[in-house]
Every structure is written in structure tokens, then in C-alpha cells.
Write a structure and sequence with these properties.
The complex is a heterodimer. Helix content of chain A is about 75%, strand content about 5%. Chain A is mainly α. In chain A, strand 2 and strand 3 form a beta hairpin. About 5% of the residues of chain B have low confidence. The chains are: A mainly alpha, B alpha/beta.
């Protein structure tokens, strides 16, 4: 029984850390550009297919394919920002939101045109033996996922708090106008944010297909939405909040599947979003911001 | 301004007609064309409509049925077509994609009716079949589903017949298999939002209990789920000896692979939806030893089967699965019905269905009043990464 609970917790931690990686992208973009980038989930799909192209079609080595995936995703992320969102910098939030949904459908349809709807099986690039502690069994991919997520988060936190570019990002998120006055290039900072967010989504995409080993054009949609819930749960705009939100959500999902009902697990996950919005709209670690008059 | 509007409307209409007529996979000759063709060769075209998933998660089934049917049609047309009354007919197939969804299947059905469909193969999967049946019943069109195995696919519709086994029958057969193999404790993992999966599961659970066995846990999942580690972890904590997965191959591939990752070594068994799984798994070792039901096995040495497999491999460079065989047999059943009725009127063909016996590559079959087939099942085991017949 105890082993079973532990294993379910590990399952939750694994899905949760993938959610957290994606949620970071949502939260960073929201913090800086004050918009919800609904196309973010589809960047995972772009990443997954890029990895597939690199390894299965171009026969590149694994590290080069991973590097290619991260670069392609960052470029796509920045391009989306430049083409679709930048012209709307001063438009009402609703226009930007709808554009983001449009971009999401655009990315899905393009991949549907290129790769067709039939799922493509993909052999995991992470072949690590599972580790056994007594009767507790942790698969190799779970260990890799946890390590990659932890390292990415540490690097991201250091980057934001210790580097000049990170300081610029924080400044822009606090006050765009003031940041510009002190000589920060706002456009460059926003592009950089999209690039970093998309690179994290690329990592999430790689981990996701190594876990599930099947590629579909719509594969990014559901994890994207769940990661958005995670970002809101943790407090949108807050980076530690996104990490915490992702992991908490993964564990809630896993435990509710295991001990309440598999049919209701998605309802519970989205129910959590409703409750959080009712009780603490700013999220677990979100700061309550008073509207300036 | 009005002129401009009218012009624009005319353009739009032209485009939409053009779009409609290019929808099918096989171009249906227009009426005048088929008439001239008919008089030249002394034969008319008998349009068989096909509906099934050609894209999406169940695409393998639809494509197989379509390709199997194409081979049968080529054979029949090469041999001079079918004689009914004073006319000789050649078959034409128009196979439409429904992505295994109800609304798309209904659109496909209506478009096929507009094109003059005389009999229908389909639909390939269960849920769309239940939706389309209501329409075909009103039009009284002969409909034969090659692979729609939910009970409701053919109930209350005297014009609808089935070529494959029903879900409950598969469930019962697998439950008996479990008993024969000496297992008593079974775990089940099934798709709660799918008629095929729940139908098979319910009959299986019932029969296991009747056989004195025990279903230790029933784990449900929803359509589109890709993560089964929670359900599998739960099964792992029970004393189950075997896992029954009445699911389609896509989910089965996820489940078996994740079970391996969790270090589980329990044997898997499934229904006919498992057919095609070898193309979906990245490592065949994860499904080594799994057993499922199938009416057709490409390695069968019977002459008709070997001939079909050779033709199929030549044309599509792939080994046919049971769905291809189902599609092939369905065409021959339609042919037998036309010949028996000596007419291509829907009513006559439907009446003839219960009087025919067809020796197909999925076994010898006849049909009951209810539309159910009378035929026997084969067990298939995955051995050394190949589908193999079980002794």
C-alpha cells in the first residue's frame, strides 16, 4: 500500500514537472507582456516533431537533434511574437487573446498538413534502466525528467536574479514605461522572454515524447491547457509559483486518478482552477496587486 | 453593386460545387459518362459507398478496409463483373473519411447518397455506425459493417448486417480463454467513453464471474488519454495475474509500453482492436506474448488467404490485417447478395442476405435475421514480434 502511494506520487511528480516546464513559459510571458500565450502548448508539439525530424529523418545524433529542437522552438516562439503579437502591443487584451488562439490553431493545422493526423510512433532517445528500491520501481525516463526539470529551474532562477538580462526582464514586467526610461530595450527583452519560454517548452516536448512515444499534431493542446491551470494555480506571473503549481497539479491529477476516479480526474484538475480563482485569484504564490488609479 | 454581389455569389457557388465533387477518393463518373461507358462495355456501374477513418487515431482500420475492398473489387471487375437480371454491373468504390466521428460519418453518408450509392461498406468503427444506421434504415440501403462490433451497430435496422464478431461475444470468448489458461485473478483496463471497449468489458467481467474467476480491479480511462501509469500502478499493487485491455491499438501501445516501464511483467490480452499494434509500438518486446482475437491471420496457408495476401502486398507493400480481410469479404458478401437476389434493388438484396453463405478469407459465414454473422474465431499471439496463430 505504502509502495503504491509512493509510486503514484512519483507518477504525479513526473507529469507535474513537465507541466511546470510548460507553465514557466506561460507565466514568464504573462509577467512581461501581460498576455496569455495560448499557442505555447503547441510549441511542445513543434519541439516533438523537430526532434523526430532530426533523429528519424535526418539521422542526426541525439545531442545535435536536441539542440536543433531547442533552437527551432525558440525561433518559432520569437517569430510568433514578432508576427502575431507585436503589432497588437497596444490593442485590447481580448484581441491579443484571440490572436493567440488563432496562432495555436495555425500551428496545429500546419503540422496536420505536413505530418497528417495519423500518429507516428517515436522511439525514446532516453534509454536509461529503471531504478529499483526494494519493490519501488522508478523508470529511467522519470529520473531524467525530474533531473532536467530541476536543473532548468535552477538555471532559470539564477538567470533572472543574477544576470543583467534577467534584471531587465524583471524591470519590464514591473513597469514597461519606466524600464524604457532607464534605457532597457523593451522589444528585445520581450523577444528574449519568448525565446526562453519556448526553449523550456522544447525541453518539455522532448521529455513528453520520450515518455509517451507517439507524435500527433494535437499532442500539445491538453498539456498546454493543464500547464496554464498550473500557472494560474501557482500565481500567474510568478516563476516559483509556476514550478509549484505544475508539481501540485501533477500530484493532484495522479492521486485523484488513483484514489477517487479516473473519469473525474480532469474534472478535478479544472475544478481546482475554479476554486483557486474563487478563493485566491492571485494564486498560491501570486502577489495581490492593487490597481493603480 | 448588386451585379457585383451576384457575380460573387455565383463564384462562391461554383467553388463549393467543385469542392463537393472532389471530396471522394474514387472519382465517381458523372451520369452521362457512366452511361456511355455502360453502353460501350455492356455494363453499368454499381456504386459501393465506404465510410471509415482514413486519418486520425483509428486510421489504420479505415485504410485497411478500403484497400481490402479495392482488391476484391478489382478481382470481380477483372472477372467480368456481376450479372443481375439482364444487366452486367461493375463495382466502383467511393470511400469517405469519417475520422471515426459521428458527425463526419453522417456528412459522408449524405454525400455518398447524393452520388448514387447502392450498397454501403461501413462504417468501420462502432460509434459512427450507430449514427449512420438510422439514416440508412430510412433510405433502406444495404449496409454491411465490416468491423463495427458494438451490439447497437445493427440492432433495430433490418437493412444493416455485420461481418465481424460482436463486442460481448469477444468479451465472453476472452473470459473463457482466461479460464482455459488457468488464470483466476484478472485486471481490466478499458476506455470508459467508448462503446466498443465498455461493451467488451461488461461481457468479459460477467463471464469471468460465471467461470468462477475474480476481476480484482477495473480501471477506466477517457478517450485521448496518453498516460496510464496511474491505472497501471494500481493494477501493480493488486494480485492480478493477467490484464485484459479491450481497447484499440493506439491505447494498447501506450498501455503496454508504460507497463514495461513500471517493471510489470503480467501477460496482456485484448480484442480485435489490437490488430495493427505492431506498427504502433516502438519496441515489439513490450507486447511479446500478448494474445488477442482475430478472424484473420495473414500467415494462414489456405489458398484464398495466401492469394489475397500476395495481391495486397504487391499493391500496397504491406501485410493485410483482419480489417483488410473484412473489407475484402464484405465486397464478396455484397456480390453474393446481388447474385442471390438477381437484382440490384435494395429490398431484394437485403432479403437475400439471410439466404447466402459466403466462404470468405475470414471464415465461412452466413447471416441471421438480426444481421449477425455466424462464424468462428481465431486466437492470435505475438511471438518474436510477429502475429502468430495460437494452437
Amino acid at each position: 500500500m505504502l509502495i503504491s502511494i509512493l509510486e503514484q506520487l512519483i507518477n504525479g511528480l513526473r507529469t507535474g514537472s513537465i507541466y511546470a516546464l510548460i507553465a514557466l513559459g506561460y507565466t514568464m510571458v504573462y509577467g512581461i507582456a501581460k498576455m496569455i500565450n495560448f499557442a505555447h502548448g503547441d510549441i511542445i508539439m513543434v519541439g516533438a516533431y523537430t526532434l523526430y525530424i532530426g533523429i528519424a529523418l535526418l539521422n542526426l545524433s541525439i545531442p545535435i537533434s536536441i539542440l536543433l529542437t531547442v533552437i527551432v522552438c525558440s525561433v518559432v516562439g520569437v517569430a510568433v511574437e514578432k508576427i502575431a503579437y507585436k503589432p497588437l502591443r497596444n490593442a485590447p487584451p481580448l484581441a491579443v487573446l484571440i490572436t493567440a488562439i488563432g496562432v495555436s490553431y495555425f500551428l496545429q493545422s500546419v503540422s496536420l498538413l505536413i505530418f497528417k493526423a495519423t500518429p507516428i510512433p517515436f522511439n525514446s532517445v532516453i534509454n536509461l534502466q529503471s531504478v529499483k528500491f526494494g519493490s519501488l520501481n522508478i523508470s529511467g525516463i522519470t529520473i531524467v525528467t525530474l533531473i532536467v526539470t530541476t536543473i532548468s529551474m535552477i538555471i532559470l532562477t539564477l538567470f533572472i536574479n543574477k544576470t543583467k538580462a534577467g534584471t531587465a526582464m524583471r524591470a519590464v514586467s514591473e513597469d514597461k514605461g519606466a524600464a524604457q526610461l532607464v534605457g532597457i530595450n523593451v522589444n528585445k527583452t520581450i523577444s528574449m522572454t519568448f525565446a526562453i519560454g519556448s526553449a523550456l517548452a522544447a525541453l518539455a516536448g522532448i521529455l513528453y515524447i520520450c515518455q509517451y512515444q507517439t507524435l500527433k499534431p494535437t499532442m500539445g493542446a491538453l498539456p498546454g491547457i493543464k500547464a496554464f491551470v498550473a500557472a494560474v494555480l501557482g500565481g500567474i506571473g510568478s516563476i516559483p509559483g509556476a514550478m509549484l503549481g505544475g508539481i501540485v497539479l501533477g500530484i493532484i491529477e495522479s492521486l485523484s486518478k488513483a484514489y477517487i476516479s479516473t473519469e473525474l480526474s480532469d474534472a478535478i484538475v479544472f475544478g481546482v482552477l475554479v476554486v483557486v480563482l474563487l478563493v485566491k485569484p492571485s494564486g498560491i504564490l501570486g502577489k495581490k496587486q492593487n490597481e493603480k488609479v | 453593386m448588386k451585379k457585383f454581389l451576384a457575380g460573387a455569389m455565383a463564384l462562391v457557388m461554383m467553388f463549393s460545387f467543385a469542392a463537393c465533387s472532389s471530396g471522394g477518393d474514387v472519382e465517381q463518373p458523372s451520369d452521362s459518362e457512366s452511361n456511355t461507358e455502360g453502353s460501350a462495355e455492356g455494363s453499368d456501374t454499381f456504386l459501393i459507398g465506404g465510410i471509415g477513418p482514413l486519418t486520425g487515431g483509428a486510421a489504420s482500420y479505415g485504410n485497411s478496409v478500403k484497400q481490402g475492398a479495392e482488391i476484391a473489387i478489382a478481382e470481380i471487375n477483372e472477372a467480368g463483373g456481376i450479372k443481375a437480371g439482364d444487366e452486367v454491373y461493375t463495382f466502383a468504390l467511393d470511400f469517405q473519411d469519417d475520422e471515426s466521428s459521428e458527425d463526419k460519418a453522417i456528412t459522408a453518408y449524405n454525400s455518398l447518397m447524393d452520388k448514387g450509392m447502392k450498397a454501403m461498406i461501413g462504417t468501420v468503427t462502432s460509434a459512427p455506425c450507430i449514427a449512420v444506421k438510422e439514416l440508412s434504415k430510412q433510405d433502406n440501403i444495404l449496409q454491411i459493417t465490416p468491423s463495427g462490433s458494438a451490439i447497437e451497430c445493427i440492432t433495430d435496422a433490418p437493412n444493416v448486417f455485420r461481418l465481424c464478431f460482436t463486442d460481448p461475444l469477444q468479451g465472453i470468448t476472452m473470459a473463457d480463454f482466461v479460464k482455459e489458461q488457468g488464470f483466476t485473478k484478472v485486471a481490466v483496463i478499458f476506455n470508459n467513453s467508448d462503446d466498443y471497449s465498455t461493451g467488451m468489458k461488461n461481457a468479459f467481467v460477467e463471464q469471468v464471474k460465471t467461470n468462477g474467476g475474480e476481476v480484482v480491479t477495473e480501471e477506466a480511462f477517457n478517450e485521448g488519454d496518453v498516460d496510464f501509469s496511474t491505472q497501471l500502478t494500481k493494477i501493480k499493487s493488486t494480485d492480478a495475474e493477467i490484464i485484459f485491455c479491450p481497447v484499440y491499438y493506439e491505447a494498447a501501445a501506450y498501455i503496454t509500453q508504460q507497463a514495461k516501464e513500471l517493471g510489470m511483467n503480467l501477460p496482456f490480452i485484448g480484442g480485435d482492436g489490437w490488430d495493427g499494434i505492431l506498427a504502433q509500438v516502438t519496441d515489439p518486446a513490450t507486447i511479446e506474448g500478448a494474445v488477442f482475437l482475430s478472424p484473420f491471420l495473414a500467415t494462414d496457408e489456405a489458398e484464398e488467404v495466401a492469394g489475397f495476401v500476395a495481391k495486397y502486398q504487391e499493391k500496397y507493400s504491406a501485410t493485410p490485417d483482419q480489417f483488410a480481410a473484412d473489407g475484402y469479404d464484405t465486397v464478396y458478401v455484397i456480390k453474393a447478395a446481388i447474385e442471390k437476389a438477381n437484382s440490384v434493388e435494395s429490398e431484394d438484396m437485403i432479403a437475400a442476405m439471410t439466404e447466402i453463405t459466403v466462404d470468405g478469407i475470414t471464415g465461412s459465414m452466413s447471416f441471421t435475421e438480426d444481421g449477425e454473422p455466424d462464424k468462428s474465431a481465431k486466437f492470435v499471439v505475438i511471438k518474436d514480434g510477429q502475429y502468430t496463430a495460437m494452437e
